[in-house]
Request: fold
Amino acid sequence: MDDLTLSELRALVAVERERGFSSAAVDLGLTQSAVSHAVRAAERKIGTVLFQRGRHGATPTPAGEVVAGHARRVLRMLEVMKAEAYGAAGGPATGTIRLAAFRSAAFHLLPSALARFGARHPKVTVDVRIVRDIGRGIAGEVLDGRADIGVTTLPVHVDGLVVKELFAEPYVFAYPAGHPDPRGLPIIDWHENCSAETSRWWKRQEWLPAGQMTVEDDGVLVSMVGHGLGAAIVPLLSLIGCSPKVATDDLGAEPPTRSVGYVTTGEMTGWSVLRDLIAELRTMRGS
Reply:
C-alpha cells in the first residue's frame, strides 16, 4: 500500500469533522475538487470506501471513522515532534496539550494541578474540555485523536489506550440539611453515574427508594438536593464546595467507590511535557 500524504491525511480529518467536502475545502483553503481528489486517493491506497457521499454531505463509514482517528493522531504527533525538537535544541517547552475531563474533575481537581504545571511550563497551554463520560466518552475522544489525555472514571471500556488509576473515592449519602427523614426522600440520579459496582451496590440496598429524577450532571444534582428536592448517592468529589444546605452521611463499612484515572495513547507517553502533566495529575491522589 502506498503511504498516505499529509494533504490526504488533512483532507480525511477535515471531511470527517465537517461532514462534507465543500465545507472541508473552505476549512483547508482548497478547492472542493482538490479535497475530493485527496480523499479518493486515500480510499484507493487503503482499499475501502471511507465516506458515503450524498446530497446532504459526506458520512464516514466505520472504516472512515477509524482512519480519521488514526489520521488525527498522526498529524498530532507531527506537532509534538516539532515541539520536542525545539525543546531538545535548548528552547523552552511549548505547545498545547488537549485534555478532556468529566465536569467535577475539571472544576475541583484540575485547577491546582494545572497551576503547578503552568508555573514550570509557562509557554505550554492546556486546553481543557469537559466531556460527558458516557459510552466511549472521554476515552473515545483520546483514541480518536481529539484529546491527548483524559481524566475519566474507571474502568475504561475502550481498547488500545494507556490507562492508570489516580485515586479512588467513596460515595456518600447527600441530603437537604436539617431534613427530618432524609432516607424517606426520593433519590436523584445523574446520567454519568453508571458504574457497574455502584449499580450492584444500589440493588442490594432495600432501604433505597427507586430514583424518581435523573438530571444532566452531578452539579445540577447537588443543587437540587440543596433545594430540598431529594437525596442522592454521590462521590465525595461532586460535593467539593457545595452549599451548606447539603448535608452528608456515610454509607456504612463497605460503601461503593469510584475510581478516577487518566487515559492517553502509547505514542503520547513519549512526550516529555505530557509526562510532566501526568506527574502533576498523580498528586491528586492525596487531594
